Amino acid sequence: MPKFFRSTATLIACLFGLGGLTLVLYAWRLPPFTSAVETTENAYVRGQVVVISPQLAGYVVSVPVQDYQAVKAGQLLVQIDDRIFEQKLQQAKATLAGQRAALANSEQKRRSDEARIASSQAQVDSAHAALTAAQANWSRIEPLLERGVSLRARPM
Questions:
Q1: Mean residue pLDDT across the chain
Q2: Please, are residues 77 and 71 in contact by the beta-carbon 8 Å criterion?
Q3: pLDDT value at position 5?
């Protein structure tokens, strides 16, 4: 035996040290005690995660794809309930129809106002023509009255 291991206490201490080192290597799963199978009670798994953000918010009616299924561009992933959007579309169409009716009403009122203006202008032109005719008659009758040639109506 080598000189170092001559005492029994030294031999026992070395065996305990070697046993403790073996125990630590086994507990921490260090070589030569490593395994191909990883085990843990608190693990994190890495995977491909894709965030999908919808352009519309609504209630989900169906999901035609399964977990971990490969999908292609343009494939339907989620179907959203479209009743709310259909209702909003019908409401917008009704509002549009109401605005078109209001526009037609405004156009009719404009035409009616233009006709009323034309009628009033015709009345003004008629009054102007009557004034011109009255002035022409007066300018013809006045010189005759000054000369005493015209006939005056007798009171009855």
A1: 86
A2: yes
A3: 56
Taking the C-alpha atoms of residue 22 and residue 33, their distance in angstroms, rounded to an integer, is 9
Locate the domains of the chain by residue range: 1-35, 97-148
Question: What is the amino acid identity at position 13?
Answer: A
**pLDDT value at 151 more than 80:** no
In our burial notation (b when 16+ CB lie closer than 10 A, e otherwise), range 2-33 reads: eeeeeeeeeeeeeeeeeeeeeeeeeeeeeeee
How far is Cα 58 from Cα 83, in angstroms, rounded to an integer? 10
Which residue has tokens 């022409």?
136
Res. 2 pLDDT band, cuts 50 70 90: low
* DSSP string of 34-88, one letter each residue: --SS---SS------------SS---EEE--S-TT----TT----EE--HHHHHH
Across residues 101-126, what is the average pLDDT?
A: 96
- Sign (positive or negative) of CA dihedral 82, 87, 90, 92: negative
Q: Which of 24-33, 47-56, 118-127 has the lowest mean pLDDT?
A: 47-56
Largest CA distance in the chain: 179
